[in-house]
Design goal:
With 225 residues, the chain is α+β, with helices and mostly antiparallel strands. The protein has helices at 2-19, 27-39, 44-57, 60-81, 118-128, 134-153, 163-176, and strands at residues 114-117, 184-191, 197-203, 206-212, 221-224. Strand 3 and strand 4 form a beta hairpin. The protein is globular.
C-alpha cells in the first residue's frame, strides 16, 4: 500500500517535470557561466550582474518542479530501503503541570508564528544542491521515517499522526529553523481536536510550541510559536 502511494506521487512529480523539461535546457551552461561570478565577484557591479544573469537564465517554476521531484525521489528511495522494526504502541508523554501549554503573552516576538513548509524546504535543498549536509540529512531521515510508519498504518492521506511521529516532525521543523538537534528535547505532546498535535520542545533556553497537522509530513506546513 505505502509503496503504491509513494510510486503514484513520484510519477506525478515526474509528469510535472516532463511537461516543463524544455525550460531546463541550458541549465548547466547557465550555472557554469554565472555561479563563479556569483560566488567570487570582482566587485559589486559584477555581483549584481551575476544575480540578474542567473535569475534571468532560470525558469523558477521548472526548477521548483525539478527540486520537488528530487525530494520525492530521495524520500521514496529511502523509504523503500528502510525496513523498520515493529513499533510499540505510542505513549503520549505527559506535559509537566507547572508549564502551561498556552503561548505566553511575554514570548519573544521572534518566536511567534514561524511557518515551516517542509515540501518547500526539501525542494529548495534539492534545487540548491545542499542535499547531504547534516541538517538536511537529519530532516529527511525524520520525515522519511514518519512517512513510512504512516503509510504502513493507513492509506488515508489525512490520517492523524501518533505522538512519536508528531514529535519527530516537530524536531525536523525546529531543525529547518536553525535549532541544533543536540539542544532539542521533547517536553510533551497534546492531541488537538482537528487531528493535529501540539508538541512542546526545549531548545536550549527557549521553549518552542509546535503545531503538527495530520497527514503526510513531507507536505505539511508546521507552525512554531
Amino acid at each position: 500500500m505505502d509503496g503504491e502511494v509513494g510510486r503514484a506521487e513520484l510519477q506525478g512529480r515526474a509528469r510535472d517535470v516532463l511537461a516543463s523539461v524544455e525550460r531546463l535546457d541550458g541549465l548547466a551552461e547557465a550555472l557554469r557561466r554565472w555561479l563563479p561570478r556569483l560566488a567570487d565577484p570582482r566587485d559589486e557591479a559584477d555581483f549584481q550582474e551575476a544575480v540578474e544573469g542567473l535569475a534571468g537564465s532560470l525558469d523558477e517554476a521548472a526548477v521548483r518542479r525539478l527540486g520537488m521531484l528530487a525530494a520525492e525521489l530521495w524520500l521514496y528511495r529511502d523509504a523503500a530501503a528502510r525496513q523498520p522494526a515493529p513499533q510499540p504502541p505510542p505513549v503520549v508523554q505527559p506535559v509537566p503541570p507547572s508549564v502551561p501549554l498556552e503561548p505566553s503573552p511575554a514570548a519573544p516576538a521572534e518566536l511567534l508564528d514561524m511557518v515551516v513548509d517542509i515540501a518547500s524546504y526539501l525542494a529548495a535543498a534539492a534545487a540548491g544542491g545542499v542535499i547531504g549536509n547534516r541538517t538536511d540529512a537529519v530532516v529527511r531521515r525524520l520525515i522519511g521515517k514518519v512517512r513510512v510508519r504512516l503509510r504502513k498504518r493507513t492509506d488515508d492521506r489525512q490520517a492523524p499522526l501518533d505522538a512519536e511521529e508528531a514529535a519527530d516532525v516537530a524536531r525536523a521543523a525546529a531543525l529547518v529553523q536553525g535549532y541544533s538537534l543536540d539542544r532539542i528535547t521533547e517536553l510533551g505532546a497534546e492531541p488537538l481536536a482537528d487531528g493535529s498535535w501540539l508538541v512542546r520542545l526545549s531548545a536550549g533556553r527557549e521553549t518552542l510550541r509546535v503545531t503538527v497537522p495530520p497527514g503526510d509530513p513531507a507536505r505539511a506546513r508546521i507552525l512554531i510559536y
